[in-house]
Design a protein that fits this description.
The protein is an all-alpha fold. Helix content is about 90%, strand content about 0%. The protein contains 7 helices and no strands. Helix 2 crosses helix 5. The relative contact order is 0.11.
C-alpha cells in the first residue's frame, strides 16, 4: 500500500508539481484567487481529488498502526485489510462532514467568495498533509518506532495542521480584536472538538467490535 502511494505521489508530482507549489504559495502568502478551477486543468483537479483520497487512506494506515498497539486483539479477530479499510472510510466520512459543515457555516455567516477561498485553503492543507503522513508512516514503520513516538509524531503533524488552519482563519475572517476572540471560540468548536469526537468514536467502535465479536 505504501509503495502504491509512493508511485502515485511521484506521478502526480511529476505532472502537477508547479501547480501544487503555487497552491502552497497562495496559502502562505494569502493570495486570493477567484477559483481553483480557473487556474487549473481538469487533469490537475483529478489529481487533487486523488491526493485527498490518498490522505484519507494514509490517515487510515496511521490509525491502524496506533490502534493495533492499543487493541492488538482486534487484529486477531478481524482481517487487517478490513480494519484498515474501515479506518480509511471513517476518515473519508469525517472529511466530507467537515466540508459540509464549513460550507453551511460559510453560507450562513460569510459571503460565497470568502467561503470558497477557505475551502480551497483547507483542501491545500489536505494535499500537503498527505505527503506529511506518508513520510511519518515510513519513519514509524521502517524504524520500528514505539507507540509513544508514533503518537508524538501524529500529534506534531496534527498540531502543525491546526496552527496553519488558525493562521488562515485569521487572514480570512479576522478584522478586529473582538473578531479574534470569536475566532478562537469557533476554532475550538470546529477544529478541536471534532477531533476529540472522532477519536472517541473510533475508540468506542474498537471496544464494540472486540466485545461483540
Amino acid at each position: 500500500l505504501l509503495l502504491c502511494c509512493f508511485l502515485l505521489s511521484s506521478y502526480i508530482l511529476a505532472r502537477s508539481r508547479k501547480f501544487l507549489l503555487q497552491l502552497g504559495k497562495d496559502f502562505i502568502m494569502h493570495r486570493e484567487r477567484t477559483s481553483i478551477f480557473a487556474t487549473s486543468s481538469g487533469t490537475d483537479i483529478r489529481f487533487l481529488l486523488v491526493l485527498i483520497l490518498q490522505t484519507c487512506i494514509l490517515a487510515g494506515v496511521y490509525l491502524f498502526i496506533c490502534f493495533n498497539s492499543f487493541y492488538p486483539e482486534a487484529v486477531h479477530k478481524f482481517s487487517p485489510p478490513l480494519l484498515l479499510a474501515g479506518y480509511a472510510v471513517t476518515c473519508v466520512v469525517y472529511l466530507l462532514l467537515k466540508w459540509v459543515l464549513y460550507s453551511l457555516l460559510g453560507w450562513i455567516f460569510f459571503d460565497k467568495e470568502t467561503t470558497s477561498f477557505w475551502i480551497e485553503s483547507y483542501s491545500t492543507l489536505l494535499y500537503y498533509m498527505g505527503f506529511g503522513l506518508f513520510l511519518s508512516i515510513l519513519i514509524v514503520v521502517y524504524l520500528n518506532f514505539s507507540l509513544q513516538n508514533c503518537v508524538i509524531i501524529g500529534l506534531i503533524l496534527l498540531g502543525l495542521v491546526k496552527i496553519l488552519t488558525l493562521y488562515k482563519w485569521i487572514k480570512l475572517f479576522c478584522h478586529n480584536l473582538f473578531g479574534s476572540f470569536l475566532l478562537i471560540l469557533y476554532f475550538c468548536a470546529l477544529e478541536i472538538t471534532p477531533c476529540i469526537i472522532f477519536y472517541s468514536g473510533l475508540t468506542q467502535l474498537n471496544d464494540y467490535l472486540i466485545i461483540k465479536f
